[in-house]
Design a protein that fits this description.
Helices cover about 25% and strands about 25% of the residues. The protein starts with 7 loop residues before the first strand and ends in a 15-residue tail after the last helix. Mean pLDDT is about 90; it is low at about 1-20, about 165-170 and about 280-290. By secondary structure, it is α+β, with helices and mostly antiparallel strands.
C-alpha cells in the first residue's frame, strides 16, 4: 500500500472510536501550503487550532495550520516578534513573558465560551481579529499587526508590511487579512509589535449599579487622564450581584496613585473599592477570576443558549439590552461591546430592528448558524466590494466558502 504523505493526517480517534472523515491536510511549510492551494479544486475548511467555530458551517476538506509553527524572529529590543501562523498562542505569550513583554491586545481564549478544546493558534487570533478588554487602550489585534505572509486561493505566496514597525509601504493587506476568517488567503507568517509587561495592576470596583449608571461611571473613568485599560460591567458578578470594574496598570506607585484618583472621581456613583495584585496572569489579586473572567466571557460557560457579540455606542447599550430577552449580559469596552446570552434560535437582529451598531452570532447550533446571517449584513456597496475581493484573492471559491456569508 502506498504510504500517506507526511502532510496528510490519518483519520482521528474521538472518544475511543474511529471516526470516518476525510484526511486532514497539514502543511508544514509555506511551499507545501502553496502547492496544496494551487492544486485544490474543492472547498477547504481552513482552521488553526479549531477552538473558534464561528461563522456559517463550511463543508469541505480540513486544511489545518497546526503544523506550521515556530518563532521565526524575536527582537525584544525592537519590540517585534515574527511567528508562523500555526504557533500556539501560549508559546508566543510564554516567549514574550520571558522577556517581560506582551501582546498589546490581550487576545481572548474562546474555549470556555464555545465549549471547545484544542490549542488556540496565533494565526487563528489574527484571522478572527481577536481582541480583549485592553482594546480600549491598546487597540485591536490588527493594530498590533505590522506584517503578514499568506497564500491566496490560487496558491500564490503574498506578503505585506514587514518585520519592523517603520515599514509602511504597499497596500494595507495587513489590516485586510485580520478578521477575514481565512476567506481571502491562508496566513502563514505574522509580525507584531509588542509592549513591555505590566508591573502591577489595580481594579476599582463599584457594586450594585444598574446598567445605565454603570455605563456612565465607565465613561467618566475612560474620559479621565488616569489611563484606564479595562472597563467592564456585569449585572451578575461572581457573587450574583452587579459589579463594575475599572482597571489601571503600570508601575506600582503610578497604579496606586491613579487608582486612588479614580476612586475619588467615581464617588458620585457609589462607594468604590480598590483591589490590587500582580498583573502577570491578567487577573485580580493574583487569582484566575477578574479580567480573565471578563476577557473569556467565563460567566456564560456551560449555560444553555446562543451567544451574540454586539458592538454599539456605549450610551446606547443599556437601552439596547433592555429590548433583549437575555439570560445574561456582559458589558466590555466601557459598554461599546455587549455579550448577550439569549434563548437558542433567537434572531437577535430582528428583536433589535434597525440599530446603530452590528451584531455577530458567536455561539449557536449549526442549524441556527445556517439559518441566520452570522455576521452583520453589509450595506450593498460594502457587500459588492467584499465579493470582488473574494473573487480577486480566491477565484476558485475554495477558502472557507460561505463562512462569512455572501455567495458560495
Amino acid at each position: 500500500m502506498q504510504a500517506r504523505p507526511a502532510h496528510i493526517r490519518n483519520p482521528v480517534k474521538i472518544r475511543g472510536a474511529e471516526k470516518e472523515q476525510a484526511a486532514v491536510l497539514t502543511p508544514e511549510t509555506e511551499i507545501e501550503l502553496a502547492e496544496m492551494l494551487s492544486a485544490a479544486s474543492a472547498p477547504l475548511r481552513v482552521q488553526g487550532g479549531g477552538t473558534r467555530p464561528i461563522g456559517r458551517p463550511v463543508v469541505g476538506e480540513v486544511l489545518s495550520m497546526a503544523d506550521m509553527r515556530g518563532i521565526e524572529l524575536y527582537e525584544p529590543g525592537a519590540l517585534t516578534i515574527v511567528v508562523k501562523a500555526g504557533t500556539p498562542l501560549a508559546d508566543v505569550e510564554a516567549a514574550l513573558a520571558a522577556e517581560n513583554q506582551r501582546l498589546p491586545f490581550e487576545p481572548m481564549d474562546h474555549r470556555s465560551l464555545m465549549g471547545t478544546d484544542g490549542v488556540p493558534t496565533i494565526g487563528g487570533v489574527v484571522a478572527a481579529n481577536v481582541s480583549g478588554p485592553r482594546r480600549i487602550q491598546a487597540g485591536a489585534c490588527r493594530d498590533s499587526l505590522i506584517g503578514v505572509r499568506f497564500v491566496d486561493g490560487r496558491g500564490r505566496i503574498m506578503k505585506n508590511g514587514g518585520r519592523v514597525m517603520k515599514n509602511v509601504t504597499g497596500y494595507d493587506l495587513v489590516k485586510l487579512m485580520a478578521g477575514s476568517y481565512g476567506t481571502l488567503g491562508v496566513l502563514s507568517e505574522l509580525s507584531f509589535k509588542v509592549l513591555p509587561g505590566v508591573a502591577a495592576t489595580a481594579c476599582v470596583l463599584l457594586r450594585g449599579l444598574d446598567d445605565e449608571t454603570a455605563v456612565a461611571a465607565m465613561a467618566a473613568a475612560l474620559g479621565s487622564p488616569f489611563e484606564v485599560s479595562g472597563a467592564a460591567h456585569t449585572p451578575n458578578g461572581l457573587d450574583g450581584d452587579p459589579v463594575t470594574m475599572l482597571r489601571v496598570e503600570g508601575f506600582e506607585a503610578s497604579v496606586a496613585y491613579r487608582a486612588g484618583r479614580l476612586q475619588a472621581l467615581l464617588a458620585p456613583f457609589g462607594q468604590a473599592e480598590i483591589e490590587t495584585g500582580l498583573a502577570a496572569d491578567g487577573g485580580v489579586s493574583g487569582t484566575d477570576t477578574g479580567w480573565k473572567w471578563v476577557r473569556d466571557v467565563d460567566g456564560f460557560k456551560g449555560k444553555d443558549g446562543d451567544v451574540w457579540r454586539i458592538s454599539v455606542k456605549p450610551t446606547d447599550a443599556p437601552e439596547l439590552v433592555a429590548k433583549l430577552d437575555a439570560r445574561d449580559v456582559l458589558y466590555d469596552w466601557g459598554g461599546g461591546l455587549v455579550w448577550a446570552l439569549v434563548p437558542g434560535g433567537t434572531d437577535l437582529r430582528a428583536k433589535l430592528a434597525d440599530f446603530a451598531g452590528h451584531a455577530t452570532l458567536i455561539r449557536a447550533s449549526e442549524d441556527t448558524r445556517a439559518r441566520l446571517p452570522v455576521f452583520h449584513p453589509e450595506a450593498a456597496p460594502i457587500a459588492a466590494l467584499s465579493a470582488e475581493l473574494r473573487k480577486q484573492f480566491d477565484p476558485k471559491g475554495i477558502l472557507n466558502p460561505g463562512l462569512m456569508g455572501g455567495e458560495v
